[in-house]
Specification:
This protein is of the alpha+beta class. Helix content is about 25%, strand content about 25%.
Length: about 260
């Protein structure tokens, strides 16, 4: 974990600036599946209704979760307040269970949040499948991570759409595992965001340690390039090479 914090502290010290472009409509022909990161052919990719999961049968949490959130999708069409977590009935192999999380001291933390998926009853309940869930610090889940989720929804309204990829970060695995199934507890979480402001693409990334401290969101912000260095994965590869290099190197952020 010391290695992770050292890297994250170095990244965060160079980031945090924001931009303030006007809100814009969206009539641009964007590349397909902009949100999907590069992945290995042996990863187990699950296509849910509205989001994609790379599921890890060893850690029992996702490698990453990616989705596009549009302004139209923020219109609530399924207004359930229930959160009934369950295994994916169509997924073969090992999965976490509610019993693994029970009395563990860790929340069942959504990667694709249920509040982003109320445009469909199916999407809402699929967000409660354990392949979309990680053990998450209670204060982080209801605090800074929740604040970031709300910010993403605000940007979806402002820009018309946001492309999102997020997931756990493992380094020293200092939190160990929970439950009989030994669900791995992440050291931190990441979220990378991409928007188009009418003139060009803008991106920002966040790294949040899996702990209960509170900071302004800019404290966690970094460039996508810096996040890629930490997690060892190419993000937003559907962008052309020149655009990807420019967007991902910038720490100008989104506002």
């Amino acid at each position: 974990m010391r290695h992770l914090i050292l890297i994250a502290t170095t990244l965060l010290s160079t980031c945090g600036a924001t931009m303030a472009p006007p809100a814009t409509g969206d009539s641009i022909d964007h590349p397909a599946r902009l949100e999907t990161p590069a992945y290995d052919t042996d990863e187990h990719i699950i296509e849910y209704n509205g989001f994609t999961v790379s599921y890890n049968h060893s850690t029992l949490v996702p490698n990453w979760v990616a989705y596009e959130l549009t302004a139209e999708e923020l219109e609530v069409k399924y207004d359930s307040r229930s959160s009934n977590f369950s295994r994916d009935p169509n997924l073969r192999g090992r999965q976490a269970s509610r019993e693994d999380y029970s009395h563990s001291g860790w929340d069942k933390g959504h990667m694709a949040p249920k509040a982003d998926l109320r445009w469909s009853e199916q999407s809402y309940w699929q967000s409660h499948y354990f392949p979309n869930i990680c053990p998450q610090n209670h204060q982080l889940n209801g605090g800074d991570w929740n604040s970031l989720e709300k910010t993403v929804r605000r940007w979806a309204k402002q820009y018309g759409r946001v492309w999102i990829v997020c997931g756990p970060v493992f380094d020293s695995c200092r939190h160990g595992t929970i439950g009989e199934a030994q669900v791995h507890v992440p050291d931190a979480f990441f979220k990378a965001l991409l928007v188009h402001d009418g003139k060009g693409y803008r991106a920002v990334a966040y790294i949040m340690p899996n702990e209960g401290k509170h900071h302004p969101l800019r404290h966690y912000a970094c460039s996508v390039d810096q996040l890629e260095e930490l997690i060892g994965r190419d993000l937003f590869p559907a962008l052309d090479d020149e655009t990807e290099a420019s967007v991902e190197a910038s720490a100008r952020g989104i506002d």
